[in-house]
Amino acid sequence: MKRFYSIFATMFLFFANCACININSSSHQNENKTENTTSIVPEDYEDHGIFSEFYEKAFKKLKTMTLEEKIGQLFLARCPSEGALDTIHKYKIGGFVLFGQDFQNKTSEEVISTLTSYQKASSIPLILSTDEEGGSVVRVSSNENLSLHRFLSPQDVFNEGGMEKIKEDATKKSKLLKSLGINVNLAPVADVSIDPNDFIFDRSFGKNANETADFVKNVVTLTQENGISCALKHFPGYGNNVDTHTGISIDERPYENFVNSDFIPFKEGIKAGVHFILVSHNIVKSMDDTVPASLSSNVHKILRDDLGFTGLIITDDLAMDAIKLYTSGENPATKAVLSLNDMMIITDIEEGYSNVLSSFKNRKIPEETINKACFRVLAYKYFKGLI
Length: 387
Prior knowledge:
Number of helices: 13
Distance between the termini: 72 Å
Order of helices and strands: HHHEHEHEEEHEHEEHEEHEHHEHH
Largest sheet: 8 strands, parallel
Mean pLDDT: 89
Strand order of the largest sheet: 11-9-7-6-3-2-1-12
Shape: globular
């Protein structure tokens, strides 16, 4: 009997020790798990946005980059007719905007080869964007070598077959762009316009805010499901304003108009997960009567804080006359960075890049402002699988 109790006691101690080992092992595993899940991303970078799954990768990448490389990522440069590879090497740009001349008379094979060479030349893969709205703005489908027909305006497409035709059109566009190596379409136009006399009317959906919102939701969803990012434009809403390509446009409408109408399609696009929103050069007096919307930090805060957008904010082209006239010849790139844009569309990359770099050295732009914008660009590129 004594022998039995002795054996039992030995077995009890053996299993008790095993349990302690397992508990300790489990405890260490939990500690390691806690350590591994602690984010390296600073709290003021973390907004739990649409690209947040890739914030850690983006932040690690950011820490390896020079200041010059980070500044370069903030530019969506107009693709030069000559020296595109030199531009990529010299400025480490975030991407190109491709216009009609970049596709003119080229075959699909030639476009694919050219864009592939751009990607190979860039140490960080490029955003390659274009405007393929349909109707009067068709950079790609205006070339019959690339498309059997020019894409129709949203209004004409809808008149042909309603929202189902809009969905079909969005799918065809995105598949064409993706096949060529483009990854962003600077569309759809989310402006609310029902007056044929408005400058923006022909490019808009031509219907009220709720119908335009439904159009935006469907185009964003279908386009991005087919691998092409969308950029809604022109925030905060063009309304009946004049063309900012050729002059300054001052919007006198009360803020309530935007809340009750213009913002609605943008909100619907944000809900659908749109990746980019492009800000106009209109001076919207109810939001900021001192500078164009694209250079207004208050307009950007409305987009972030009130509408909840966590994607990339980009300016309309800084070469437009509305910017030139308003800034009296001064390069606006520094103002664009300080007003919390993530990226700038720019024609003169050399001047814009030099201006931002010089402003940093003169302590006009804090390095943290550059870091945060670059961080979001990198997070997008990881999200898209470009990096």
